[in-house]
Amino acid sequence: MTDTSRAAVRTDDVWKIFEHDGMAVEAVRGVTVRIDPGEFVVLAGPSGSGKTTLLNLFGGLHRPSRGRVWVDEQDISSLSEHDLSRLRLERIGFVFQAYNLLPILTALENAEFTLLLRGVPPEERERKVRALFEKIGIDGLEDRRPSKLSGGQQQRVAVARAVVGEPALVLADEPTANLDSVASGALLDVMTQLNRELGATFVFATHDPELIARARRTIRLVDGRIASDTRQ
Amino acid sequence: MMARLVVLARLALRNLRRQARRSILTAMAMVLGLALLVFTRSLGDGAHETWIKAGVRLASGHVAVMQTDYLPRRAIEDRLPAAAARAALDALARPDLAPLVEAAAPRLELHGLASSSRGAVPVVVYGVDPTVEPTFSQLDARLAEGRPLAPDDRLQAYIGVGLAKRLKLQVGDRLVLTTQGVDSTIADQLVRVVGTFRSGLPEVDDGIVHIPLRTAQDWVGVGGDVSSVAILLHNSRETERVVRTLTAALGAVGNAAAIPWQTTTPELDSAVKLDDYGNYVFHFVLLLIVALAIVNTILMAVLARTRELGILRALGLQRRDTATLVLLEGTLLTTVAGLVGAVLGLAVTFGIFRHGLDFSKFYSGEMTAAGAIIDPVMIPLFRLDHMLQNLAWIVIIGIVASLYPAWRATRIEIAEAMKFEG
User: Fold this and answer.
1) For B227-275, what is each residue's pLDDT tens digit?
2) Nearest-CA distance from B417 to chain A in Å?
3) Domain locations in chain B as residue ranges
4) Which end of chain B is more exposed for a tag (fewer CB within 10 A), N or C?
5) Are the C-beta atoms of A98 and A31 separated by less than 8 Å?
């Protein structure tokens, strides 16, 4: 089902240094890691440990100060802005902490947005999204605007948007942080299911103990370095 | 590419609808701006047409057929041969020109003296065709006493009230006109005053004499020659076309040329241009205010949607796509507002003010412009080219005013935008 010779994402001695008030802040320091297709990985660690920055490096939202990052074996460190945008569109799905759905679009339109940008025909888009909505338990909400959805429902739409294009990698930054425990548990069920059934590779940055407990691999970061990398 | 543009246009439209109140307020500024532009421009165009028509009626028409050398000196030696005048009148009767022409008046212009028993004053004597002149000149309509020239008149004169006063002449009195004939001899002509006119312009009322064309031609011995054929058009914008067609039709007959009013009446052309420049400044300020309103709205919309634009970029939208999105929002807003503004402007201009704006209460005497008496009622004029220009301007301004916000949108860093709480 998954090609284990190709990493979903891997890095080689990657660094990210920010300039802040004239001071160099090393957010990620020499991280070398490999995440294979189909993995369900958590980046854990205290605030300021570099979880989100590493996730952003995986997603091409930050460029590494040093070192290299490959997504689906494509070196993204030196990609042009244009190619990086294309890579994000075609190979990476994002789930953000604050749902970040587009308020002007319905749930269905939000979920199909990346397919729309990729030029997928309308019937195929709708078929895929409706099937996915049914799978993750939000069918019937297709025509609602985000403002008419609960936090949990919004986050499921965001997950649908992230996976509908069958990306090589789904990156989720604190996806359960704004949800209550019931909604959070339900969302994790959905993502576990999608990981299992679709073989989607999930990488989370989180503090959430429940999410950490469900992960099959936990990479713990401290001060921008990998402190531990454990598999269950 | 096209599919993505459609997606972006849909997003732009929905963004504008989402911020409906802000969009409507900005659109209102543009609607009122364009409506005001349409109104002032139509009124200006109407005023200019009035000025031009009034000016050319007192001068050489919209187009004058004359010898190429006539203008600088206006000397009898540089007159237009009868054959050339006839060729011009024949050309004007052709089906391609006839509908454009309101009147064509052959005239002989002579400079000399008018004398009575009470003195002598310098005058310009126009030999005119009494059958054509009432259509052409405003002077027949400004009769003060007596009557204008009639077709059967021979030794009659129609003079200004100022001249009559200076020479102490009444209707029925005689005066002597003196000028230089073609053989350089001094020639006199005795005529009788049949009427006086009051134009309101001292230089006209004090120094113009109309006599029948045939009398003038016989007096100076020029046969059927004239100084010029003055042509009045229904619409001044046809001037260039008539000049072009007449020039082709005349060929090299008698060294004749068709001269536009801008050349024969340069002071009128300058007055129109000067007024145009004033209007341009007003329109520039107006459009600048509209542009600032657009910049403000679109920029605020971009700043308020920093996180959203960041999401779009994270999802795979290119930098140029975000710029296109913002430009589309600005252009859509201005285009819709422009169209509504144009309709409103036209409705107000040609609905409420179609009979014109009366400025007579601001003037105690005659209202003049560039040496011509003009009607104090300014009637707006619809010009399709100006309407299209207005719309083009508003769309261009929409695009230009959206450029900076669009550039700002491309500068958004995705990871930073995600932290934005807007």
Assistant:
1) 999 999 999 999 999 999 999 888 877 688 999 999 998 988 998 899 8
2) 11
3) 2-55+269-418, 61-263
4) N
5) no
The answer to whether the Cβ–Cβ distance between B313 and A114 falls below 8 Å is no
Instruction: Please give the DSSP secondary-structure letter assigned to residue B152.
Output: T
A195 interfaces chain B, CB cutoff of 8 Å: no
pLDDT digits (tens, 9 = 90+) for B174-187: 999 999 887 778 88
CB A104 within 8 A of CB B18: yes
Task: Quickly count: other Cβ atoms within 10 Å of residue A148's Cβ.
Answer: 12
Three-state SS sequence of B323-391: HHHHHHHHHHHHHHHHHHHHHHHHHHHHHHCCCCEECHHHCCCCEEECCEEECCEECCCCCHHHHHHHH
Do residues B76 and B110 make contact, with C-beta atoms less than 8 angstroms apart? yes
B418 touches chain A (CB under 8 A): yes
Instruction: Return d(Cα A74, Cα A76) in angstroms, integer.
Output: 6
Q: Which of A85, A96, A103 sits opposite B316 (nearest CB)?
A: A85
Q: Chain A: residue nearest B8 by CA?
A: A117
Contact flag A61-B414 (C-beta cutoff 8 Å): yes
Distance CA A200, CA A94 (A): 12
Mark yes or no for CB contact B318/A119 under 8 Å.
Answer: no
Q: Cβ separation of B18 and A103 shorter than 8 Å?
A: yes
d(CA A14, CA A65): 8
Res B370: pLDDT: 61
Q: Give the gap in angstroms from C-alpha B234 to the nearest C-alpha of chain A.
A: 55
Using DSSP's 3-state secondary structure scheme, residue B57 falls into: helix
- Asked if B315's CB is within 8 angstroms of A113's CB, the reply is yes
Tell whether B1 is within 8 A of chain A (Cβ).
no
Residue, of A4 and B215, whose pLDDT is higher: B215
Please answer whether residues A137 and A149 qualify as being in contact, where contact means their C-beta atoms are separated by less than 8 angstroms.
no
Give residue B52's Cα distance to chain centre: 6
pTM for the complete prediction? 0.73
pLDDT digits over A71-121, tens only?
999 999 989 999 999 999 999 999 988 888 999 999 999 999 999 999 899
CA distances from A167 to A37, A160, B108, B217 (A): 10, 12, 91, 97
The set of residues, in sequence order, having a beta carbon less than 8 Å from that of B143 and lying 6+ positions away, is B195, B196, B197
Strand residues in A120-194 grouped as ranges (E): 169-173
CB B417 within 8 A of CB B310: yes
Residue B43, C-beta contacts closer than 8 angstroms, at least 6 positions apart: B349, B353, B357, B378, B380
Q: Which domains does chain A have, with CATH numbers?
A: 37-62+81-231 (3.40.50.300)
Partners of A83 in beta bridges: none
- Rounded to whole angstroms, the Cα distance separating A135 from B379 reads 70
Query: How far, in whole angstroms, is CA B207 from its chain's centroid?
Result: 28
Q: Are strands B367-369 and B372-374 parallel, antiparallel or unpaired?
A: antiparallel
Interface predicted TM-score of the whole assembly (ipTM), two decimals: 0.89
Tell me which chain B residues have a C-beta less than 8 angstroms from the C-beta of A122: none
**In B74-187, alpha helices (H):** 82-92, 133-136, 161-166
A61, A113, A114 ranked by CB distance to B415: nearest: A61
